[in-house]
Amino acid sequence: MNNLRNTKIIATIGPATNSREKILELAEAGVDVFRFNFSHSDLNLYKKLIKDINEINEEYDLTLGILADLQGPKIRIGDVKNGEFMLEDDEIVQISSDNKISDKENIHISYPGLEEDVKKGDKVFINDGKIVLKIISDKNDGKILAKVLTGGLITPRKGVNFPDTKMNLPSITEKDLKDLEFILQQPVNWIALSFVRNDKNVRDLHKIIKKHKHTAKIIAKIEKPEAVKNIKKILKYSDAIMVARGDLGVEIPIEELPGVQKYLIETSIKKSKVVIVATQMMESMINNTTPTRAEVIDVANAVLQGADAVMLSGETAMGLHPCEVVKIMNKILKGAEKSFTPPKDRPKPEPKCSTFTSDIICFNAAKISNELDAKAIVGLTVSGYTAFKVSSFRPNAQIYIFKSKVYFIHFKSCQGSTWILLQQKYKYRRDSY
């Protein structure tokens, strides 16, 4: 299955893969972690599939991870009159923050408080930036008017972005809270928090997880310019970040996206945190049997920059060839890893840090293993911290971390992947991350 490939593959479950049989096929193809997207959640189905994954782990002695991805304050258009309508360039439309049916004169979106947040000159992007509007009215005009800069077809449930607007929406919505009540009763390993803007958003989720006495670790999804600005503080309280290039690529100028991705990966490595690259990795394979050359290079570049994992979304959720896309991604990752060079600027233990003693031991273990060309590094852990830390120094050796009597975790990663499940099992077992 994984065959000691270092960079991990996360696959999104959807209509094309929401069965035990498909999950097993994807695992055999090379998937390490399965993502459940709670923007489109069927809790009864998700409960069954989570059970299936854990049964597969037991039956085949695997360690497939489970990632629950919260929707967050995603802004969308609601229902549309007659199912669709066309916006033409230079037209003037009104925007409202309610749940009414949109038409050619009035676009209604799910953004409570929009009237207070938006200002004249702000851009509005619809459907991943394919349609662009510009606010032309002041707050005191009584209504929000926008001019169509780039027209297009408006259809229901399309996403809306306000890159110039400082939003005051809560990071954890009422829907998220309801989903968390379900998620925190399940054996999930990771919870992804959408549209993170600052470290407080992450700390709020920490409190909820702690209250439920759950061991799930937090992935902060970086989708807003504000999150990029606050990345160091966000990393302090997160276990991982996800470079979610879909919304991020709309919220910032598209030409800045490659540099921002590189910066986020480098910053995460320095802070010894897991980093995932996501969105449109192999999107052409939703319909086609082979990726484009640009997609191959994009996936490989994520590896060469040092990403711990890459994530498939529509490719496995609703694509025609979900297993084939995983097999091809597996080959690309292995090929790219042959050319990977660990960064020279690796994380350094900080004397003032409360974990300095552990950090310096992990640092020197990695350093000595490289100097001696050692085959393995062996350690002990209670929380999994040792595994994360040793891996962050990017040693060449295999890493074996023991936990809970004879239960141990094994992972080898030039990228520092640390998909530690921390399950309370008291039997001999090898976990390959």
Describe the overall structure:
By secondary structure, the protein is of the alpha/beta class. It has helices spanning 20-29, 43-60, 114-117, 174-183, 199-211, 225-229, 231-237, 245-251, 257-270, 293-305, 314-317, 322-337, 356-372, 385-392; strands spanning 8-12, 33-37, 65-69, 85-87, 92-96, 106-108, 123-126, 131-135, 144-150, 152-154, 160-161, 190-193, 217-222, 240-244, 274-278, 309-312, 376-380, 398-402, 407-411, 429-432. It folds into three domains: 8-73 and 176-336, Phosphoenolpyruvate-binding domains (TIM Barrel, Alpha-Beta Barrel), CATH 3.20.20; 81-161, PK beta-barrel domain-like (M1 Pyruvate Kinase, Domain 3); 356-432, no CATH class. 34% of the residues lie in helices and 21% in strands. Strand 15, helix 10 (293-305) and strand 16 form a beta-alpha-beta unit. The longest helix is centred in the N-terminal third of the chain and has 18 residues, at 43-60. It is globular and about 70 Å long.
